[in-house]
Specification:
The complex is a heterodimer of chains A (157) and B (479). Chain A is an all-alpha fold and 157 residues long. Chain A folds into 2 domains: 2-69; 73-155, no CATH class. Chain A has helices spanning 5-22, 38-60, 77-100, 102-116, 121-142, and strands at 2-3, 68-69. Chain A has a two-stranded antiparallel sheet with strand order 1-2. In chain A, helix 1 runs antiparallel to helix 2, helix 3 (77-100) runs antiparallel to helix 4 (102-116) and helix 4 runs antiparallel to helix 5. The two termini of chain A are 45 Å apart. Chain B has one domain (2-212, 219-477). Chain B is an all-alpha fold. Classes of the chains: A mainly alpha (157), B mainly alpha (479). At the A-B interface, strand 1, helix 1, helix 2, helix 3 and helix 4 of A face helix 8, helix 10, helix 20, helix 21 and helix 22 of B.
Chain lengths: 157, 479
């Protein structure tokens, strides 16, 4: 997925200006000419300059570089699916882990990805369950990371 | 020792699977090393990366697909040798001269680091400011094909470093009232995202079908290595020296070292016409270069806290977590730790030879591991790993955003390494900048008042203005 430089430039320009508008509200250090606003302000100024150059470049080359070049894979349904399932799986984990518990959400995340990447269903189910338990054992038992139990709390071991 | 063996196996495996890089190996190791004593954690990282850089040669040789970016430079060459039936020589050369290069880099580390540390004790905030700025400038000048994009990436990294309370005034910046952001954006989840999640996303949209392994029996990989050593002593030395130097420069790591020394080897060779047709000379030189770069990158990391490549950028994060803050005082206060690091490097490069040999023997099995099963497992591992550092789901979100950002940026030619350096060094740059500004009372000339600072400042300015100047002069001269 390729974007024209000007699009990056525009996004960075907004970011840089937002920072520049925001930093003057930072307090000064007592008796000093410099404060917490100086450093981020300088960086934001740098970003703005780079962003402007990117915009000029992008507009100049717009004949050869289209605004958005989605790339080959966006024409393949399977790959679009794989891309978004990957992202959705992580979000689902963040949202649901505390409610469902690692031993439920973990295998589900794996299963969703295996299917999206084209693993055979039987293999996918077996591997998902085994791997989730192995990771749980390694992190929960050996490294003592408090992975959430969720609805499985009464059965915690 | 057990940790070293386990992380060797891990490193060899990760390196040998195309699409999993040495940096990713380090990022994946961090959540585990988090629970180890400092030396053990460093041992795990040192061995895993050394192994991964070597084993990246294996798929390059058998599949024409580099296992790590550091092997990309001579991947075609090694594959050409395989087709001629010399796979064992190519792999053997990769293994033996990787180890030699690694040992050379370690020797330079042992000799130069304490001397540099002595020197660095004289540094004030002015010198540190210039040094960090010089490091960041090098990262852009050396690595980026388009310096502007490297610069953007660096600014983004520096901006991320501004988030939170960690600034000289202790004022919460850009936190939007979020408590999780007060402590700043976690370095480790950020790196796991940038190096592992982005790689998984790239795999998810990869249209290329899996490659077929070359079916060929492998002979004795060590046969003829002694003759090669006698035939190409200069190449080994040159590759190792260049590798160490490139590794020590911030931002440029093993991959750039390999590309550069492959080019040098071709230029200096007596038989340049043989390059690209399956000639072992370039493999020897760049194979030793990428492993020596690995050790070289530790020199500035340990002495100044400025990472030489993205792997040591992660290492610095780990060292801070372990209260082993890098810097010259590390050499004066805890010399035993430094000696342990030296020893680890030597041991890692020595055990690489038998373990690498074993890895070559089972390489066909490794290359057959289906990646569509491996990648989801790595993803779940990343989620748990990012969570494990602070036990907060917020870090998983940071990891995901960093992963998507890393993927989009790289697709569009923005290098990720300057961003990582920016995040790692942002705090140090600001602290020394503000301290120096206060000392000189806002007078920018004060940055050149001390002779040491003035020379470092001059070097930095030269790094900015010389390359474009040379380009312009060449254009005027019509070359």
């Amino acid at each position: 997925m390729k974007f024209n430089d000007a699009i990056f430039g525009a996004v960075l320009l907004i970011l840089g200006i937002a920072v520049l508008v925001h930093v003057p509200s930072f307090p000064q250090m007592a008796g000093q000419k410099v404060g917490p606003a100086l450093f981020p302000g300088l960086i934001a100024a740098g970003l703005v300059v780079c962003a402007l150059i990117l915009i000029v470049n992008g507009v100049k080359h717009r004949a050869t570089a289209p605004w958005i070049n989605t790339g080959e894979w966006t024409r393949s349904r399977r790959h679009i699916g794989a891309f978004f399932v990957t992202i959705a799986a992580v979000i689902a984990y963040i949202v649901l882990a505390d409610k469902l518990g690692f031993l439920i959400i973990g295998p589900l995340v794996l299963l969703a990805l295996f299917i999206a990447y084209g693993v055979r269903l039987i293999t996918a189910i077996v591997v998902a369950i085994v791997v989730a338990f192995v990771i749980h054992y390694a992190f929960y038992k050996l490294l003592r990371v408090p992975l959430p139990w969720g609805v499985l709390t009464p059965f915690a071991f | 020792m057990l940790v070293m063996l386990a992380s060797s196996a891990f490193g060899l495996f990760v390196g040998a699977v195309p699409g999993l890089t040495a940096t990713m190996a380090t990022a994946l190791l961090v959540p585990v090393t988090f629970f180890m004593p400092p030396i053990m954690a460093i041992a795990a990282i040192v061995t895993a990366t050394a192994m991964a850089i070597f084993s990246g040669d294996i798929p390059g040789c058998l599949l024409r697909m580099p296992g790590t970016p550091a092997s990309a430079a001579y991947c075609d060459e090694a594959y050409a040798m395989t087709r001629k039936g010399h796979a064992e020589t190519a792999l053997g050369a990769g293994l033996v001269f990787s180890a030699i290069g690694g040992l050379f880099g370690t020797a330079v580390l042992i000799v130069s680091a304490p001397a540099l540390a002595d020197f660095a004790l004289k540094f004030s905030s002015f010198e540190y400011f210039w040094l960090v700025l010089l490091g960041l400038s090098c990262a852009i000048v050396i690595t980026a094909e388009q310096p502007l994009k490297g610069l953007v990436s660096l600014f983004l990294g520096l901006s991320i470093a501004c988030v939170g309370l960690g600034n000289p005034a202790g004022f919460p910046r850009f936190t939007f009232g979020n408590i999780e952001l007060l402590g700043g954006i976690g370095l480790i989840p950020l790196m796991i995202g940038m190096f592992a999640i982005s790689e998984i996303l790239r795999f998810a949209v990869d249209l290329n079908p899996p490659l077929k392994v070359v079916e060929q029996p492998l002979g004795n990989v060590f046969a003829g290595m002694w003759e090669l050593t006698k035939k190409y002593p200069m190449q080994i030395l040159r590759g190792s020296a260049l590798g160490t130097l490139v590794g020590a420069l911030p931002g440029a790591g093993a991959d750039i070292a390999a590309w550069m020394s492959y080019a040098v080897s071709k230029k200096m060779s007596k038989e340049p016409e043989k390059f690209g047709t399956g000639h072992v000379e370039g493999i020897i030189e760049s194979g030793s270069a990428n492993n020596s770069a690995l050790a070289g990158a530790w020199i500035p990391a340990l002495v100044f806290g400025i990472p030489g490549d993205s792997i040591t950028a992660i290492v610095i994060g780990v060292l801070y977590m372990k209260n082993m803050n890098p810097g010259p005082t590390l050499f004066t206060q805890n010399p035993q730790n430094i000696y342990a690091v030296y020893l680890l490097f030597i041991v890692a490069n020595l055990i690489m030879i038998p373990l690498g040999w074993a890895c070559i023997k089972v390489s066909k099995r490794i290359l057959q591991v289906p990646r569509n099963i491996l990648m989801p497992v790595i993803l779940l591992f990343c989620i748990v790993g990012a969570f494990a550092i602070n036990n907060t789901p917020f870090d998983i979100g940071v990891m995901l955003v960093a992963g998507i950002a890393g993927y989009v940026l790289e697709e569009n030619g923005f290098p990720v390494a300057p961003a990582i350096l920016g995040v790692v060094l942002g705090g140090m740059l600001e602290e020394n900048f503000i301290t120096s500004m206060i000392k000189s009372d806002g007078d920018l000339l004060g940055f050149f008042a001390r002779p040491l600072a003035a020379s470092l400042g001059g070097l930095t300015l030269a790094a900015w203005f010389l390359p474009p100047l040379i380009r312009r002069l060449r254009r005027i001269a019509g070359i």
